[in-house]
Design a protein that fits this description.
The structure is a homodimer. Chain A is of the alpha+beta class. The first copy, chain A, is built from three helices and eight strands. The N and C termini of chain A lie far apart (46 Å). The model of chain A has no long low-confidence stretch (mean pLDDT 95).
Chain lengths: 142, 142
């Protein structure tokens, strides 16, 4: 059980105490340091966090592949970390990065290439900043 | 089971089909529309998503309180949504917002008021942009 002094310490203290979820992960948001655009939302386990801090390059944990993953290890589209920040309850980190090429596995700079609007019959989406910077079929060969 | 055409449709299509997790939630990142700074990472259920799209103000689902929550309903610190975007696999949304006051329940503009660095004995944190814009004790009276 978390006491209020645990919470105070987690929120106000300077001790690095990531609050991992039941799967051992924290959420990570990477933004483009130049524009502030959100590039991707992913997850990190303890090892991904440590590797990122130690190397200055982004590492993640893939939930679909259940594996530690250095961003760009297959695609070459690496992320150099200019700054890492931790949120109030220490379950999310924010990376300001220099993205080499494109962050998204679909070949786009950002994973957020669709805008959501209000339509008559419910939400509607439209493409925005959806140009492909690489061909995923060529990059992720089986 | 997801077939590859399901995945293509989810990633390349314009149909709004949020991929909720086992708890019925998607992840949401709110950034300050003026600066690109990440204000907070939170979650939305189907109703929070719908209310946000319909009202143009951010609604979330609080996992700790297990309740739908209009951002600012207690604190007055509302978020006007200038743009909503959906990510490639439709399990995360990005809101570009105009924040009234401060996003963080600790009174800071952003939840990310601590920078993580590399120390000799492991990661170290330091305060950054940590000025309080409101007094949480006064705002969240029991």
């Amino acid at each position: 059980m978390s006491t209020s002094s645990d919470i105070d310490e987690r929120e106000e203290g300077l001790a690095f105490r990531p609050k991992f979820d039941a799967s051992g992960l924290v959420t990570c948001v990477a933004t483009d340091a130049a524009t502030g655009d959100v590039l991707m939302v992913a997850h990190m386990n303890e090892e991904a966090l440590r590797n990122t801090i130690d190397s200055g390059e982004a590492w993640y944990f893939s939930r679909s592949r259940n594996a530690l993953w250095r961003k760009g290890e297959t695609s070459g589209q690496t992320q150099r970390v200019l700054e890492m920040r931790m949120d109030c309850d220490q379950d999310a980190v924010w990376l300001r990065v220099e993205q080499v090429g494109a962050a998204c596995h679909t070949g786009r700079l950002s994973c957020f290439y669709r805008k959501v609007g209000k339509g008559e019959g419910g939400p509607v989406m439209s493409l925005v900043d959806a140009e492909r910077l690489f061909d995923p079929k060529a990059v992720y060969k089986k």
